[in-house]
Design goal:
Blueprint lengths: L7 H14 L5 H23 L12 E6 L4 E6 L6 H9 L4 H9 L23 E9 L6 E6 L5 E6 L5 E8 L14 H12 L6 E10 L7 E9 L16 H10 L7 E10 L3 E9 L15 E5 L2 E7 L11 E6 L8 H5 L2 H24 L1 H20 L6 H4 L4 E4 L5 E3 H7 L7 E5 L3 H5 L5 H5 L4 E4 L2 H10 L1 E2 L2 E5 L10 H12 L1 H10 L6 E4 L8 E6 L4 H9 L9 E6 L4 H12 L1 H19 L6 H12 L1
Parallel strand pairs: 1-7, 11-13, 16-17, 16-19, 20-22
Antiparallel strand pairs: 1-2, 2-6, 3-4, 3-6, 4-5, 7-8, 9-10, 10-13, 11-12, 14-15, 14-17, 18-19, 21-22
Bound molecules: adenosine-5'-diphosphate and magnesium ion.
């Protein structure tokens, strides 16, 4: 039988994995046991839809056996098995190229969790074995086949003998080297511990023959060593167990074993609902953003069980989009087993559960925000954007659920604050919740538009993400306080500046109109600024669309034509205005030059492109010589 090569990229990935990716070698056993359990699940599903098939629970188990002399460890299952074709496709190609590309980009990070994302679990066997033999007989087939490989140099598949349907995986465990120990994977107590640690909730028995001390027959104090088959795993699903008996570690192990994420859970909650609907659920907030989270590829959903049996891996209907980051499972006795996807969407029970779960998640997050601020901020960094999308989406219909979970950077506190914290600090005379939008905190700190509001001692929320201003426009107000951009025409601040500005506006009416004519098509109007203190000019916008929003929309594929109604604001207190005035009175060319310079300066400050940079630098030269 000719030896076949692994697909090229599989080969590279395999070498990489064996040598570096996993730091804990012991997880190979979790991988192989999970595969065995999956294979039994598959038979179970088949039996559900096939009336001819009977599923006797006792017939399905996973067997672990060790032979120290030949250094072999065998993992057998009575699962669905693989045909020769399936051996080829399932074990011959390791990962899709997209996943490999991702891995390569992240090569620098030593993250041993990451591998499972690619469905390459099986190959972890090569971390501890230098030969792997898979003998399998598929359900409904009389023939068996054997797959054999020594690692990166390829594999062979040939016919074999196997009496029962299922799969035997035999690992020839590596010899100890100077730096690495492998003998432990041939020791019963070590294997037992690994199974307990990772695979305790596997729903089928994991059996293993072990040595135990038993009193000798007919004797009270003499013992003998006998071999006895034990079931190592407890099998009771974690969500059925008493919360008080469970530790944080149990939940974390569950999260890892279930492959909910390749990080650690930041927070979890174990729900037992007994009311209109009866269900158990464990919900996790992941610690970090999955690499595909903000892409179309990401699929939200919770595992759905009916009475302990998995009926759907990712039930999307259980989670609103804005909580799509939540991982976990729901088990309900009220759902029927053979329910189809279409029926589920209309299932009244499921809708009730979903509603219930939504409020559990909300209160879990709110609790974190109130009591574990540091964790909440970590969460918010990873998924805050999703909450803001939630506020914005579906015409703002979820805003009441989400507004209290939002955080923004505060000019005063120099950290993230909630809207309710902001409002509670508002002085009586402050009418609005002020915000400033820009690329970064540093950029906004320097925005001339913030001066007047900051000078009044009012707090400003910094919007640094594209979505921020759109979300806030959807909210409109919070606790009856309206949101106001610092660049808005009416800041609601009544003071001297207000009167002075309207006075100056009247005094310089012609000059301003002349400027406006010169900037025809570029700005909607030229006005005396009420907000500037030390800067000569700035841009603001009239109407609903702000300059920041214009930038965001312009960056979108079909947003090319939107225009904010821009206003060029002039600080009449600034020395530059005197020069401008002088030029207006005596030198038309100079006035034109100054007008364009000021306009371009305002564009620069706003982070907008200058239409003609060459002309701009020429203009500066004109002023200098
Ligand atoms: P994943 O489990 O993430 O799909 P693995 O590398 O662990 O990736 O396994 C690859 C595939 O090989 C599985 O999806 C399954 O189809 C098949 N497989 C592995 N082990 C077994 C087994 N014991 N019985 C049946 N099929 C198996
Ligand atoms: Mg697997």
């Amino acid at each position: 039988m000719a030896k076949k090569q692994f697909k090229a990229e599989s080969k590279r990935l395999l070498e990489m994995m064996i040598n570096s990716i996993y730091t804990q070698k012991e997880i190979f056993l979790r991988e192989l046991i999970s595969n065995a359990s999956d294979a039994i699940d598959k038979i179970y599903y088949k039996a559900l839809s096939d009336e001819q098939m009977v599923f006797n629970k006792e017939d399905y188990y996973i067997q672990i056996s060790v032979d120290e002399a030949s250094r072999t460890l065998t993992i057998s299952d009575t699962g669905i098995g693989m045909t020769d074709k399936e051996l080829e496709t399932n074990l011959g190609v390791i990962a899709k190229s997209g996943s490999l590309a991702f891995k390569q980009e992240n090569e620098a990070q030593e993250d041993h969790h990451i591998i499972g994302q690619f469905g390459v679990g099986f190959y972890s066997a090569f971390m501890v074995a230098d030969e792997v033999t898979v003998t399998s007989r598929a359900l409904g087939s009389e023939e068996a086949y054997q797959w054999f490989s020594k690692g990166a140099d390829g594999y062979t598949i040939k016919p074999a003998e196997k009496a029962e349907v299922g799969t035997d995986i035999v690992l020839k465990i590596k010899e100890n080297t100077e730096d690495e120990q492998y003998d432990e994977f041939l020791q019963e107590y070590r294997l037992k511990a690994i199974i307990k640690k990772y695979s305790d909730f596997i729903r089928y028995p994991i059996k293993m023959e072990v040595s135990v001390q038993k009193p000798k027959e007919g004797s009270e104090n003499e013992f003998e060593t006998v071999r006895e088959e034990q079931t190592i795993n407890s099998m009771v699903p974690i969500w059925r167990r008493n919360k008080n008996e469970l530790t944080k570690e149990d939940y974390t192990n569950f999260y890892n074993e279930k492959r909910y994420g390749f990080d650690q859970p930041l927070k979890y909650t174990h729900v037992r609902a007994e009311g209109a609907v009866v269900y158990n659920a464990i919900l996790f907030i992941p610690e970090s953003t999955p690499f595909d989270y903000y892409t179309k590829e990401y699929e939200k959903g919770l595992e759905l069980y009916s009475n302990g049996v998995l009926i759907m891996e990712k039930c999307a209907d259980l989670l609103p989009d804005y909580f799509s980051f939540v991982k976990g499972m729901v088990d309900s006795e009220d759902l029927s087993l053979n329910i189809s996807r279409e029926m589920l969407q209309h299932d009244r029970q499921l809708k009730l559960i979903a509603k219930n779960i939504k409020s559990k998640i909300k209160s879990m997050l709110q609790g974190m925000l109130n009591n574990e601020r540091e964790d909440y901020e970590k969460f918010y960094k990873a998924f805050g954007r999703q909450l803001k999308y939630g506020v914005y989406s579906e015409y703002g219909m979820h805003k009441d659920d989400l507004q209290d979970l939002l955080l923004f950077y505060s000019s005063k506190e120099k950290k993230l604050v909630s809207l309710s914290e902001y409002v509670s600090r508002m002085p009586e005379e402050q009418k609005y919740i002020y915000y400033a939008a820009g690329e970064s905190i540093e950029r906004i700190d320097k925005l001339p538009q913030t001066e007047r509001v900051a000078d009044k001692g009012f707090e400003i929320l910094y919007f640094t993400e594209d979505i921020d201003e759109f979300a806030i426009k959807m909210l409109q107000q919070y606790k009856e306080k309206e949101f106001r951009s610092v660049s808005s025409g009416d800041l609601g601040i009544e003071d001297e500046a207000e009167n002075k500005a309207s006075e100056a506006e009247g005094d310089n009416k012609e000059l301003l109109e002349k400027m406006q004519t010169l900037l025809e098509g570029k700005v909607k109007s030229v006005k005396v600024s009420k907000r500037l203190k030390s800067h000569p000019v700035c841009l603001s916008a009239e109407g609903e669309l702000s300059i920041e929003m214009e930038k965001v929309l312009k960056a979108m594929p079909d947003g090319g034509n939107v225009q904010a109604d821009k206003v060029l604001e002039i600080n009449v207190e600034h020395e530059v205005f005197q020069s401008l005035k002088a030029a207006y009175a005596s030198d038309e060319e100079k006035f034109k030059l100054y007008t364009h310079l000021l306009y371009n300066q305002a564009l620069l400050i706003e982070g907008l492109p200058i239409q003609d940079p060459v002309e701009f630098t020429n203009d500066i030269c004109k002023v200098m010589v």
